Amino acid sequence: MDTKEPRTNSVKSLRKAFSILEELDRCGELSLAEVSDHLTMDKGTAYRLLGTMKEAGYVIQNRETKRYSNSLKLFAMGNRVAKATGYGEVVRPYVDALSERSGETANFGLRTGNSIVYLVKCESKETIRAGLDIGTTVPLYCTGMGKSVLAYLPEDELAKVLSSMRFRKYTETTVSSKEELRAQIAVIRENGYCRDDKEFVDGLICFAAPVFDFHGYPIGAVSLSIPEYRYDPGTTDEKLSALVIDTANAISRQIGRNS
């Protein structure tokens, strides 16, 4: 009986290297031991991968603390990609208007693989604000923008994406299985928007809706980020969900006209 695993084009060392970059992006700075612990990775493997990425200029190491962080090389690459897409310039007025109308931090993100990257942001004028920085990359499965995109992918593509996901608990409310995510996707499709209830960051509530290209394909999403203490389910849901849906639809129409 042949017990060999099916061959794939996946290179495990590359996947591990990318997981390190994503974890450094999430945490900011980590020691070798913390990288190994967070990713359940052999310390020797983590050391070799970090050394290689450091030589290539993607990771830097603090000389005093010996802790690792991502370099500005990734930021520069991301900015060039963002400029190449042209979406930032088109989307900016809509994101600014959404923040003004809601009084909260508004965002636009593009899907990249199994993640969403924050491309445009307009911060709330409130003293206490909520949101993630431009350039931050977050998983699709535990963010409002990410799940908004997932909900409108073609079924065959959605199945492939879900089969490749590795679920990690960032907070107590993070979705932890394909079955749970499927159930949430059904609700998003019915409502036309997603509410992220502290799934990636504790204390952060998000409302998001998908943005479509000329062919009706979900390329990204817009969202509003709200500190939990300002969130009132009785009045907030209806107001903010309507705002993100209207904004997402307006951007979709604009992108369609410009395609």
Would you write up a description of this structure?
With 259 residues, this protein is of the alpha+beta class. It is built from nine helices and eight strands. Strand 3 and strand 4 form a beta hairpin. The chain is globular and about 50 Å long.
Largest sheet: 6 strands, antiparallel
State the distance separating the first and last CA atoms: 53 Å
Order of helices and strands: HHHEEHHEEEHHHEEEH
**Uncertain spans, ≥5 residues at pLDDT below 50?**
1-8
Number of strand elements = 8
Strand content: 15-25%
The coarse silhouette is globular
- Residue-averaged pLDDT: 85
How big is the Rg?
Answer: 19 Å
Give the number of helices.
9
Q: Order of strands across the widest beta sheet?
A: 5-4-3-8-7-6
Category from helices, strands and their pairing: alpha+beta
The residue fraction in helices comes out at 40-55%
